[in-house]
Backbone:
């Protein structure tokens, strides 16, 4: 352990991509940090980075520990210990190691990893009486952790009261007037002004659930942008750099977002090895760690439609089937390429911009509805205006658009009417109604040119399903009653009254069950 004369404020365990940067961020905000990783080289690297970045007039604020007992004895009580280790078994591994090292009942362990929310619920109960297991899901990647992430804390409110000042200091900040991020990436000079992107989400598991849905939306938003890229490159024959320029232009309009910004950047990057566009040298097989899948599974389990999020997970799965795709590309016929005039191409690009905006609204509507339905099942009181607010900066899905979502929920709160679906908010219903024809034309062109658009297309089906007062589920109920006597309700009788037609009898009489 490094020399220190005083007890430290907070411990960080796990110094990978996120933990290392969180430790530096916390230190930038004047807290003294004890740091530990199983790999001593990572502790050393962190200490060196702090030394390199620290302004000359600042004292050392991070101290390395060689084991957890040393960390516990270096911290002021009750202790705050931040876990930034991979989700799953490593979280319990560290908790058990902390128990062996002498962690106490009043100490707080904050899990900042992408843990499955049901694991978090179980852990809070499992460690009760031993220490306070608190969770704080985090988004923002490496740079977010370093200079201001979005933080989604949940669990024991007393634990939140203790960590809140640190969390508000290290979180990303938003200008309250414009709703735009205040960004300054300067070691030793953290952003202290503006609204912090953190808020208490709810009981144990709520923060991880909200982060999981954030990631589900992230999957869908990324896939929507990728579909637009394929339409512009394969469909229109534009180069990666040209698509990058279009995305950069869109990023200055209603599609302004971090994901659009980085997509434009990725597309304009040349490969250092070949000089070709880097994107064309990257293998088209998408990885995933599970949070998008968990979101889709949750939506299926609770019966909340989130088709665009599910399609984004399937799109990653299809991408990994490279061998089959190679074989089938030689076997299966597709349409002739579309030949478009210059005017038609320009029109198509504008239509696609509107299609993307509409699909994005539908995808966020799905995510927010999912959070609402799960909250209802769990008895959580989620404040969606606050959730949208803390996603305006710091996190991967940060976008100007989140300010409109914040305002839509604030308006609903003001008039005392719950916003059951974001499509109902005036700002979005007007935009969707105005742009839906362009959305259809973009999907139609994609279909006619043979470019797959599972997310842009499924979002349109979601939109059309929700604007249909009547769906063909009447026939479906008839089918179910026919083969399985599963019964149906009638439109001219009380809700809940069940009927069955004796389909196999010659008279086909109707029974009230
Ligand atoms: N990367 C990202 O953009 C984001 C990640 N997250 C989540 O944050 C968590 C951390 O992610 P990330 O930093 O990317 O992961 P990394 O794999 O980069 O870092 C995890 C670190 O934890 C260390 N570790 C593992 N087990 C222990 C242990 N028992 N005691 C001490 N240290 C341990 C690892 O050491 P070693 O390598 O030696 O095993 C490694 O240094 C994950 O749950 C991730 O899903 C959340 C938001 C964004
Ligand atoms: O949580 C995150 C950002 O919010 C991570 O970047 C996310 O885990 C990446 O997920 P995947 O590897 O599944 O694409």
Residues:
């Amino acid at each position: 352990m490094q020399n220190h004369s005083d007890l430290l404020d907070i411990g960080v365990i796990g110094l990978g991509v996120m933990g290392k940067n969180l430790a530096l961020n916390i230190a930038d905000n004047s807290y003294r940090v004890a740091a530990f990783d199983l790999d001593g080289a990572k502790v050393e690297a962190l200490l060196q980075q702090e030394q390199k970045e620290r302004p000359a007039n600042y004292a050392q604020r991070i101290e390395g520990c060689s084991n957890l007992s040393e960390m516990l004895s270096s911290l002021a009580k009750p202790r705050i210990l931040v876990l930034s280790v991979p989700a799953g078994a490593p979280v319990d591994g560290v908790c058990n190691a902390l128990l062996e090292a002498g962690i106490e009942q009043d100490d707080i362990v904050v899990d900042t990893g992408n843990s499955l929310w049901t694991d978090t619920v179980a852990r809070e109960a499992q460690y009760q009486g031993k220490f306070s297991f608190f969770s704080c899901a985090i988004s923002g990647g490496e740079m977010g952790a370093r200079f201001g992430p979005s933080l989604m804390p949940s669990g024991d409110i007393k634990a939140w009261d203790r960590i809140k000042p640190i969390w508000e200091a290290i979180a990303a900040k938003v200008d309250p007037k414009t709703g735009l991020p205040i960004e300054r990436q300067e070691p030793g000079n953290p952003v202290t002004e503006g609204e912090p992107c953190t808020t208490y989400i709810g009981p144990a598991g709520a923060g991880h659930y909200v982060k999981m849905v954030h990631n589900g939306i992230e999957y869908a938003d990324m896939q929507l942008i990728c579909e637009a890229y394929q339409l512009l490159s394969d469909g229109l024959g534009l180069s990666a750099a040209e698509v990058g320029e279009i995305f950069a232009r869109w990023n200055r309009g209603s599609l302004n977002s971090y994901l659009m910004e980085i997509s434009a950047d990725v597309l304009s990057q040349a490969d250092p090895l070949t000089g070709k566009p880097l994107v064309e040298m990257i293998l088209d097989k998408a990885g995933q760690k599970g949070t998008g899948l968990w979101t889709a599974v949750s939506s299926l389990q609770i019966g909340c439609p989130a088709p665009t999020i599910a399609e984004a997970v399937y799109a990653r799965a299809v991408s990994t089937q490279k061998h089959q795709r190679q074989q089938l590309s030689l076997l299966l016929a597709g349409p002739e390429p579309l030949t478009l005039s210059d005017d038609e191409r320009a029109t198509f690009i504008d239509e696609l911009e509107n299609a993307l905006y509409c699909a994005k609204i539908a995808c966020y509507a799905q995510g927010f509805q999912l959070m609402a339905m799960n909250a209802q099942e769990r008895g959580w009181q989620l404040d969606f205006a606050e959730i949208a607010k803390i996603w305006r900066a710091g996190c991967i899905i940060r976008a100007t658009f989140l300010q409109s979502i914040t305002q839509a929920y604030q308006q609903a709160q003001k008039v005392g009417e719950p916003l059951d679906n974001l499509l109902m908010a005036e700002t979005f219903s007007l935009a969707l109604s105005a742009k839906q024809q362009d959305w259809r034309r973009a999907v139609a062109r994609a279909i006619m040119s043979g470019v797959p658009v599972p997310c842009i297309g499924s979002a349109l089906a979601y939109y059309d399903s929700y604007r249909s007062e009547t769906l063909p589920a009447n026939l479906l109920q008839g089918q179910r009653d026919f083969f399985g006597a599963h019964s149906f309700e009638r439109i001219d009788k009380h809700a809940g009254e069940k009927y069955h037609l004796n389909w196999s009898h010659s008279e086909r009489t109707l029974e009230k069950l």
